[in-house]
Design a protein that fits this description.
The complex is a heterodimer of chains A (546) and B (404).
Chain A: H1 3-8, H2 17-41, H3 46-53, H4 58-89, H5 95-103, H6 110-121, H7 126-131, H8 143-169, H9 173-180, H10 185-214, H11 217-221, H12 227-236, H13 240-266, H14 291-318, H15 333-363, H16 367-381, H17 384-410, H18 422-447, H19 450-458, H20 463-492, H21 495-500, H22 508-516, H23 521-544
Helix pairs in contact in A: 2-13, 2-15, 2-16, 2-17, 4-5, 4-8, 4-10, 6-8, 6-14, 8-10, 9-10, 10-13, 12-13, 13-16, 14-23, 15-16, 15-18, 15-20, 16-18, 18-20, 19-20, 20-23, 22-23
Chain B: H1 14-26, H2 30-37, E1 56-59, H3 66-69, E2 82-85, E3 96-103, H4 109-120, E4 124-131, H5 133-146, E5 153-156, H6 159-167, E6 171-172, E7 193-205, E8 230-232, H7 237-250, H8 252-264, E9 268-269, H9 273-282, E10 287-288, E11 290-291, H10 292-301, E12 307-310, E13 320-328, H11 334-344, H12 347-356, E14 360-361, H13 392-400
Parallel strand pairs in B: 3-4, 3-5, 8-9, 8-10
Antiparallel strand pairs in B: 1-2, 5-13, 6-13, 7-11, 7-12, 7-13, 7-14
Helix pairs in contact in B: 1-2, 5-6, 7-8, 9-10
The chains are: A mainly alpha (546), B alpha/beta (404).
Chain lengths: 546, 404
């Protein structure tokens, strides 16, 4: 037994102490910013905080937030599941094209989507003006319905991607077996197909729900009063402690959502994971007369999500502003390189950290494993501004004390600088986006037949060897897809980036932010299009792993 | 420093030569200008006793390559032939590196100015950090508590943000003579000084109202049902500053009444004031409350939009807020930081910002662009801008009445 195997021994077997410790350490690390939020809360002026909670609009805002989460999640399922079905299980023409096209909206930041939609469909919008003479009136884009629409259009691909993965790995012979045993078509769907698809749908829906809960930009542009606005107002009015308190409230809602998803996930305990993917079985559903409506459905989704915003961006780019005296800071392609650099780093770190957490959750089902898995989702639901300031709070404290501590212990100032340095920024991205990598990796681990690993062990492979030679190659597509998902969401991330970036380090989104604030849309168009193109590559990576 | 161009440490004054070079190559008028003002204006750098120059009157050609600092475009209109203030040529040279936190930053315009100044000095560098101004203020307060801020200078687009940092004991006091550059309102304490003015205003749709329809105080609008289709942006810092001013000028109960009155008239809440100005131009709103330059930005994009701007008189709606700057406590470069701030207040920098954006230059002799009224034609209320940092009671009030 090599040293590596001896070290790794506790990671395998029935009581994976080492793996549990590792997973626990990762969960603790991504939860650690919560500690700084809690420390902040202890400093809060309770009577002031009470006045916020007791204000007349509290109930409305809470209902708006919960309603938005429910509506966006529901609508994303209604959009994502049929699209997944159409692109996997039917003879839809140009399936490859539609697969990529309907997944692509994920690369567009939802606030950018909201912005271009208002510009197109808002009062006196470009498209509203074109459609009005044709007698087509557009209902107001603002409010609950508009916010639900935008958030759904830019988050449903989570459900699409996860459902698609479930469908691809779903063994169609199971349905045939059930049918041959005399169950009705509906019964077979309910008892065989649904339990197989549910975990995939649920894991995508969870990401959608938590995104809808924690997003600030879209509801604010769409004029819907939601919970995050209260937090945002406090931070922008210097109420750091109160904002921290309010974000705890948000995290409590997150915990409830996580618990709900857990119940759905648990229903799959008895699910049998097929070994034969549907790609191999010849059970493609023929659309027949539904071919055209199906194409129309895919086409309209793509038009709304992609064609409209990109057309508006190109319009901004080509429009020459009148009497422009303003000369904003010029765009540089190095901003795109910076974005790609930090996003790649975040994706790589997430991929590495996701493997032990996902492996533990998939292979060693226990309360603790589940808790560790769920813990990684908390950061995803923490608004970027809350996380960013928590890390500022931590890092300034660290910078103030680290040199003294290191001098006392090690005899020299060896402590690395964290504040406004790239590692801390990348850590923030990991905290926010790790669950995306964990989710994708976990479902790929579930799909690996455990007997393969056992066979490798019985043939004399060490645990590490078996993992490296058998399991890892099998789960690699899931790990890569998860990393690519982290990459594209990191490309879009704004609030934590603004707070934690190294001084002078400009990215695509920080540049878009700075020119958009003064209405310089023409200048925002190039980086926005660059963001979409670069992220689109990662979407191709995700889909090619299937 | 002696008069043949060596500083106190005996090194040759490269910077001085660089400046003259720029001035000579800038324009044909350069030679005459050099003869007019060169040679006698340079003082030693970073000497605490060095007097900050007195403002004086400059012919345009005596300034430092004015046409390079000035923006271009049809909206700029006529510029003066004489300016009163301090030219960058008369300010101490700069050498060294500063970290500047930029709150907001006007779409990179402020960064551009800092870059432009760096090109003037061979050995001067700035590192800039851009983020929303309140977030940087929060960050600076955290840093100050730990006693280790990397920032030397904070320059934010609202007085409230620099005020919060100052109130948290995170600033160094500025020299008294900074007060020579701008009117006293914009140098209310020694902790920060205004750079560019941002006036509150009432943008209105000219299909709905004439200029005479807009009352000369916003306090008359809450009970006037002609204003039943207005918009505001309550989450926006400048709006909150406006309400803070109203609370402190008119009292809390009158402010509450005003807010309730406007809500009773059905005022709509928008994400920011650029949106408000755009919706007024669209006719979706008949009027709104916003900072003055948002309407100029809309006009820049849509010159034919039926959008005009009204300024009320000596009421909270006539508040002139400002972008402002301060030196952060614990900096190693305090004198250099002060010198940078003086540069921001030079005639050249004010012309740069005033003709490339739509903010009000705070040096009174530098006029705003286009058809904006001069800053001394505006009639702001008597109000101490340091009080804008007192925003928590404002938020509480806005929440009480259901605006936030």
């Amino acid at each position: 037994m090599s040293v590596a195997d001896r070290l790794a021994a506790p990671f395998d077997g029935d009581r994976p102490t080492g793996l549990t410790l590792l997973g626990g350490a990762i969960a603790a690390a991504v939860l650690s910013p919560l500690l700084w939020i809690l420390l902040r809360v202890l400093q809060v002026d309770t009577s002031y905080a009470a006045s916020i909670l007791a204000r007349p609009t509290t109930v409305d805002i809470l209902l708006n937030s919960l309603g938005l989460v429910a509506a966006v999640t529901g609508a994303s399922i209604l959009l994502g599941v049929p699209l997944a079905f159409l692109t996997v299980r039917t003879d839809l023409p140009f399936r490859r094209f539609w697969t990529i096209a309907v997944a692509l909206p994920l690369v567009i930041p939802s606030y950018l989507g909201a912005f271009t939609f208002i510009s197109a469909f808002g009062p006196s919008g470009q498209l509203a003006d074109v459609l009005a003479p044709l007698g087509i009136g557009i209902p107001t884009i603002y409010g609950f319905a508009g916010t639900t629409l935008i958030l759904t259009l830019y988050t449903y691909p989570y459900v699409f991607i996860t459902t698609r993965a479930s469908l691809l790995s779903f063994d169609q012979q199971l349905v045939e077996a059930a049918r041959s045993l005399g169950t009705s078509r509906w019964e077979a769907f309910r008892r065989v197909t649904l339990p197989q698809l549910l975990p995939g749908i649920a894991s995508g829906a969870l990401l959608v729900a938590l995104y809808a809960l924690s997003d600030f930009g879209t509801p604010s542009l769409m004029r819907l009063d939601v919970f995050t606005r209260v937090i945002y107002v406090e931070y922008n009015a210097f109420g750091r402690e109160t904002a921290a308190l309010l974000s705890l409230q948000l995290l409590a809602i997150t915990a409830v959502i996580l618990a709900i998803e857990s119940r759905v996930g648990n229903e799959t305990d008895g699910a049998y994971v097929g070994t034969k993917s549907s790609a191999e079985s010849d059970t493609t559903v023929s659309l027949g007369v539904w071919k055209l409506p199906a194409l129309g459905f895919c086409g309209s989704v793509v038009t709304l999500c992609l064609v409209v915003p990109i057309a508006i961006l190109v319009h901004w780019l080509l429009r020459s502003p009148n009497g422009a005296t303003r000369v904003g800071q010029a765009f540089q392609w190095s901003f795109a390189a910076n974005s790609a650099l930090v996003s790649l780093a975040a994706a790589a770190v997430c991929a590495v950290l996701a493997v032990p957490v996902a492996y533990l959750a998939a292979r060693h089902r226990s309360k603790l494993a589940e808790l560790i898995d769920r813990a990684t989702y908390v950061g995803y639901a923490t608004p970027g501004i809350v996380l960013g300031l928590a890390l500022v709070f931590f890092a300034v404290w660290y910078e103030a004390t680290s040199d003294a501590v290191s001098t006392a212990l090690l005899g020299g100032a060896y402590a690395p600088t964290l504040y406004q340095a790239l590692p801390l920024l990348i850590f923030a991205y990991v905290v926010r986006f790790l669950p995306q990598a964990v989710g994708a990796t976990r479902s790929s681990v579930l799909r690996v037949d455990q007997s393969l690993t056992e066979a490798a062990r019985s043939l004399g492979h060490t645990p590490v060897g078996a993992f490296r030679q058998v399991t890892l190659p099998l789960i690699a597509p899931g790990v890569i897809a998860g990393a690519a998902l982290v990459f594209l969401t990191t490309m879009k991330e704004l609030p934590a980036t603004l707070l934690l970036h190294p001084t002078g380090f400009e990215t695509l989104v920080t540049y878009i932010w700075s020119v958009r604030a003064v209405g310089d849309y023409g200048a925002a168009a190039v980086p926005a299009l660059a963001l979409i193109v670069v992220s689109a590559f990662s979407m191709v990576v995700i889909l090619s792993q299937e | 420093m002696d008069r043949d161009g060596r500083d106190t440490r005996g090194r040759p004054r490269l910077l001085r030569g660089r400046r003259d070079f720029l001035k000579l190559t800038g324009a044909t008028a350069g030679l005459a200008a050099l003869a007019g003002c060169g040679g006698d204006s340079e003082e030693s750098d970073y000497n605490r006793e060095e007097p900050i120059p007195e403002p004086k009157t400059y012919a345009e050609s005596d300034l430092f390559n004015m046409e390079e600092w000035r923006g271009s475009g049809p909206l700029i209109g006529e510029r003066p032939s004489e300016y009163e203030g301090v030219s960058m040529l008369d300010l101490p040279d700069m050498r060294g590196e500063l970290t500047v936190y930029l709150g907001g930053g006007e779409g990179g315009l402020y960064v551009n100015l800092l870059n432009r100044i760096q090109r003037t000095y061979r050995d001067f560098k700035t590192k800039t950090r851009k983020a929303p101004s309140a977030q940087l203020a929060n960050t600076l307060v955290e840093e100050a508590r730990a006693g280790n801020s990397p920032a030397d200078v904070f320059w934010a687009i609202d007085a409230g943000s620099v005020g919060v940092v100052a109130n948290n004991d995170a600033t160094e006091s500025l020299p008294e003579a900074v007060g020579r550059f701008v009117p006293g309102t914009f140098y209310p304490s020694r902790s920060w000084v205004g750079v560019m003015g941002r006036a509150r205003s009432v943008p209105y749709n000219t299909d709905e109202f004439d200029a005479a329809d807009i009352p000369n105080t916003v306090m008359a609008m809450d009970s006037d049902d002609r204003f039943d289709n207005m918009g505001w942006a309550p989450t926006y810092g400048a709006f909150q500053s406006f309400i803070t001013a109203m609370r402190l000028i008119e009292g809390e109960s009158r402010t509450r009444e005003w807010l309730n009155g406007m809500q009773g008239l059905g005022i709509g809440a928008y994400n920011n004031e650029l949106v408000v100005a755009n919706r007024v131009a669209d006719g979706e709103l008949s009027a709104g409350f916003s900072n003055h330059y948002y309407s100029r930005l809309v006009r820049q994009d849509r010159p034919d939009a039926p959008l005009e701007l009204a300024f009320t008189q000596s009421d909270p709606g006539a508040l002139i807020n400002c972008s402002a700057t301060e030196v952060i406590k614990g900096t190693d470069e305090r004198i250099l930081a002060e010198n940078l701030i003086l540069h921001l207040l030079s005639v050249e920098a004010q012309e740069f910002l005033g003709t490339r954006g739509y903010e009000y230059p705070l040096v009174p002799s530098v006029p705003p662009v286009g058809d904006l009224p001069a800053i001394d034609e505006l009639n702001p209320p008597e109000f101490d801008l340091t009080r804008l940092a007192d925003v928590e009671p404002t938020l509480q009030l806005l929440r009480d009445v259901g605006v936030l």
